[in-house]
Amino acid sequence: AAFSTSSAAAAIKNVTVVGGGLMGAGIVQVAAQSGYKVTMVDVSPDSLDKGRKIISSSLARVAKKKHADDQAAQKAFVDKVFDNIATSTDAAAAAASADLVIEAIVENLATKQKLFAALDTAAPAHTIFASNTSSLPIGDIASATKRGDRFGGLHFFNPVPQMKLVEIIRTKDTSDSTFAALTDFTKALSKSPVSCKDTPGFIVNRLLVPYMLEAVRLVERGEATKEDVDLAMKLGAGYPMGPFELMDYVGLDTVKFITDGWYEGGVGLKGEKLVEPSETINELVKNKALGRKSGKGFYDYS
Ligand code: CAA
Ligand code: NAD
User: Fold this and answer.
1) Pocket flag, ligand 1, residue 278 (CB < 6 Å)
2) What does pTM read for this prediction?
């Protein structure tokens, strides 16, 4: 795709990120590190605190790399990034002064639509809206607003501060200037953009999810152990993590949510064998073994 520059991007100064969880906090961090004024929004002071903690511990790693033996410089770096971050529990008020709103809340269509309908009334006309959804159609989310031309997908990867890719999703309504603004914003974060149509899983998850599910089926068939599958994909295919390590990292509830949604009705993937839900994963999720975040998934982290 051709990535042109735009004047709309130059106009992006204030960014609001709604959802300060794993992904939202990461997006807040990289935007603030790149000099944007960012407001992080979540449902309660407690959730905002969690978001701030995610940012602090990640920034500490970045600061250590940047200023190895200079603790004063590390502190100055961290303080400077936090100077660019405000927090709020009022999404509408935050959107009222935003040039770009990025949504990274729970992966539920109705919840996202409700949020965006409210933001659409509160935000100025020029404000661009973007969703970080992993698996829901951007067009369905945008349909809750009257600004389909100023709406796109901005899909980051976990861990956001480390992963260099952002997928930019155009719906049939996304305008050229919106697409250009999202592209320029991505580059300003020192990330590499790729573009994709509004299809299930876009590029990365469309390939990664069937791959992870086939790894589970391979082990279920008794052909190899999960440990050997992980080692094989790391040493034989150059992946930084094997598929079982990666599922634990992403969260098994997230993997389940994506496959269930696609298999049950995801545009073009309904009943598709490639994304058939896995009984092994269902059982783990039922037992609250969600991966790293719960201390246990395919592997034990306690
Ligand atoms: N914040 C800042 N820096 C971080 C970080 C964080 N949260 N996590 C890791 N890093 C940095 C480390 O500081 C380190 O930096 P240097 O190499 O410059 O020293 C580097 O990342 C490597 O970290 P570690 O040495 O601790 O560990 P590692 O080598 O095992 O790397 C990893 C960790 C980057 C997560 C790597 O294993 C990896 O890339 N794994 C695959 C991740 C992946 O595929 N993510 C996509 C998931 S799918 C998704 O996100 C889409 C979706 O919709 C579900
Ligand atoms: P998370 O559960 O860590 O964080 C979600 C946050 O949103 C929570 O802090 C929650 O309190 C907050 N929230 C929920 N409803 C809200 C509302 N109405 N208003 C404001 N805040 C609200 O989830 P996550 O892993 O950060 O995922 C967020 C989004 O990013 C999802 O759409 C997910 O599919 C997508 N995503 C996840 C990954 C991943 O690997 N986890 C990768 C890429 C994209």
Assistant:
1) no
2) 0.95
Question: Interface pTM (ipTM) of the complex?
Answer: 0.97
| Catalytic annotation, pick one of 205, 245, 278, 294 | 205
For the stretch 128-153, what's the b/e string if a residue is b when 16 or more beta carbons lie within 10 angstroms of its beta carbon? bbbbbbbbbbbbbbbbbbebbebbbb
CATH label of the domain that carries residue 288: 1.10.1040.10
Task: Supply the residue whose CA is at minimum distance from atom 15 of ligand 1.
Answer: 162
* 207 CA to centre of ligand 1 in angstroms: 19
pLDDT over threshold 80, residue 129: yes
Query: Any catalytic annotation for residue 4?
Result: no
User: What share of the chain in percent tops pLDDT 70?
Assistant: 96
- The question of whether 155 is a catalytic residue gets the answer yes
301 lies in some domain: no
Domain identity same for 244 and 129 = no
User: What pairs with residue 166 in β-bridges?
Assistant: 193
State how far the Cα of 75 lies from the Cα of 67, in Å rounded to an integer: 10
Q: How many domains does the chain fold into?
A: 2
290 occurs within a structural domain: yes
Of 132, 134, 195, 278, catalytic = 134
Q: Which atom of ligand 1 is closest in space to residue 255's alpha carbon? A: 54
Q: Are 262 and 245 in the same domain?
A: yes
Q: Tell me which residue range forms the domain holding 239.
A: 205-294
Contact assessment for residue 1 and residue 195, using Cβ atoms and an 8 Å cutoff: yes
